[in-house]
Amino acid sequence: MADNPMLKFVGKGQAYPDKRDADARADDFLEISRSFILDKAEEQASRCSQCGVPYCSTHCPLHNHIPDWLRLTAEGRLREAYELSNLTSTMPEICGRICPQDRLCEGNCVIEFSGHGAVTIGSVEKFITDTAWKEGWVEPLVAGKPTGQSIGVIGAGPAGLTTAEYLRAAGHEVHVYDRHDRAGGLLTYGIPGFKLEKDIVMRRVQRLKDGGIVFHENFEVGRDATLEALREKHDAILIATGVYKPRDIRAPGVGAPGVVKALDYLTASNKAGFGDDVPEHADGTLLATGKNVVVIGGGDTAMDCVRTAIRQGAKSVKCLYRRDRENMPGSQREVANAEEEGVEFVWLTAPIAFEGTEHVTGVKVTRMRLGAPDASGRRAPEPDPGSEHTLEADLVIKALGYDPEELPKLFGADDLSVTRWGTLRVDHKTMMTSVDGVFAAGDIVRGASLVVWAIRDGRDVTEHMHRYLKAKAKAAGERVAA
C-alpha cells in the first residue's frame, strides 16, 4: 500500500480549481476558474478509491473509464490518461467544463457517500485534455479508406459533430448542414463564455474541417433544400437539430417590448463575444446594461441569462422561480456562482402579468406555495391568494426551456413521423426515423437534455448508420453483379 498512488481521500481533502474573485469575473466573459496545475491534478486524482463497481462510470452517459484515467493522472501518465479519456468521448474538455457532475459522476462517487467529498472528476477531465491540446497530443482527424458513400448531417451541435467525426474516420464523405454562421450549436451560441470559452469549441470544429468534413453554414433545410433533396444527394441522413422552440408564458402583456426569449438574448451576447456586429445590442433590445432585469425560470438557461446580465452591467438582476431552491432543476453550483456575482433569487414566485404598454415596466407576480407532488415527484406549486405584487423591470427574459420545432413542416417532409411531444419518432433498435435512411439523435429525439447525452446519442447512432451503409453498399454490389 505504501507505493499505491491512489486512495488518498482520507489525507487529502477535496479541492476544485480556485475561482476568480466574484467582482473581477463579473466584468468579463472569461471562464470563472482555470485548470489545475499539474501537482494539484495529480493530488486530486489520487483521492479516487478505485472501487470495484465504479458508480462514477455507470452514472456517466458515456460510461467514461473514469477510475482508470484518474489513476493514470495520479501516476503522471497524462498522455495515456488523455488517450483513454478520448476513447469514449469526442469532447472531454467540453464535458469537463459544462457537465453537471454534481448530478452525474461526482454525485455518485463512493467517497462522496462516505462524507469525504467526491473526486473532482470534471476538473481533472478538463485538465487532461487541455494539456493534450497544449502538448500537441490531440491527433488530426484522419479519414479511413474511402467507402464511396456520402452522409448528410443536419445540425452542427454535439450529437451531429460526434457522428460526423466517427463516420469520417470510417471513410465516408461527410457534409454538415447548420442554420448558424458557425458550427457548434448551443455550445457556440447558447452557452456563455464564462462557462465555455468559444475558442475551446472552435478548435474542435476546425479539427473536423481539417479532417475533410464539409460544413455548409447558414444553411436551412426547408429554405435552401428540402429533406428529400438531401436524401437524393447522400446515402444516409442524420437529423441532429436539437430543440430550439422556446416555451412561452401565457399571461397578459407577454408580447410587450422588452420581454424577450432567452436564446435570442444569449445568442446576441455570444455573437458580440465573437466581435460580430449585433444590432440588438446597438439599439439596446437585447442588452442588459443599466436595466432592472428579471429572468423567469430555474434551469441552467436561466442561470446563463442572469449571469450574462450581471456581466453586461445590469442595474439589478432577479431570478424568479415558482418552486424553492431545493426543487429547482438547475445546477446548485450555478446558483451559488450567480449569488456570489450579485444575482437575487426570488423563490416561490411566478409571473401573472407584464406591465407597460410601449415597453415593459414591471412584472406582476404572485407568491407560490408547494402542494402535493406532481407526476415528476416534485411538489406542485400553487398560488398563494392575496400575495400579488409588482417587481420593477426594464428587461424580462423568458428562460422556460425548449421544445422541438415542427420539423415535418420546416423540412417539407410530411412522411417524417413525430411523437405527441413533437420529437422525432425513431425505431430505438436502429435509431432510424419513419423515412428510410434518415436517422435522428440528440435532443430532437429525447427532448431537451444534456450535452453529454447528445454526444452519447451521436456515438450510438454512428454504429446504426454504419451498419445501414454497409448493407446498402452490399445490396448495390449484388445488383451490379447480377
TrEMBL record:
Residues 151-458 form the FAD/NAD(P)-binding domain. InterPro entries: DPD_II, FAD/NAD-bd_sf, FAD/NAD-binding_dom, GltD-like, Helical_ferredxn. Residues 26-136 form the Dihydroprymidine dehydrogenase domain. Keywords: 4Fe-4S, Iron, Iron-sulfur, Metal-binding, NADP, Oxidoreductase. Pfam families: Fer4_20, Pyr_redox_2. Its cofactor is [4Fe-4S] cluster. It comes from the Bacteria. GO terms for molecular function: 4 iron, 4 sulfur cluster binding; metal ion binding; oxidoreductase activity. This is NAD(P)-dependent oxidoreductase. It comes from Sphingobium terrigena. The lineage of its organism: Bacteria, Pseudomonadati, Pseudomonadota, Alphaproteobacteria, Sphingomonadales.
